[in-house]
Structure formats: structure tokens, C-alpha cells
Amino acid sequence: MLGWALLFAVLALLAGFLGFVGLAGFAATVAKVLFVIFLVLLVVSFVVRAVKGQSVL
Q1: How many whole angstroms from its chain centre is CA 2?
Q2: How many CB atoms lie within 10 A of CB 12?
Q3: Cα three-residue angle 19-3-46, rounded to 5 degrees
């Protein structure tokens, strides 16, 4: 998931550099959404492991 967010972030930077403003905005939005989903899943994973008594790291 984090890999996809990074891919869309790089795509947004590249599209912005080349002047494709609409595509850059869309790719940046997708990257932000994927990154937030990744963070939420990471926190949920930590909480579930902590409740089970397993190490979170």
C-alpha cells in the first residue's frame, strides 16, 4: 500500500514538472488517500497486536 502511495506521489511530481496540472492534482490526491489508508491500517495492526499481547515492533 505504501508503495502505491509513493508511486502516485512520484507520478504527481513528474506530471507537475512536465506541466500536466490536472493529472498531477489527481495523482497527488490519490497518493494522499492511499497514504492515509496505509496509516490507518498500520495503527489498527499495532492495536490488534498489542491487544493479543504480541510485540508491536
Answers
A1: 5
A2: 21
A3: 135
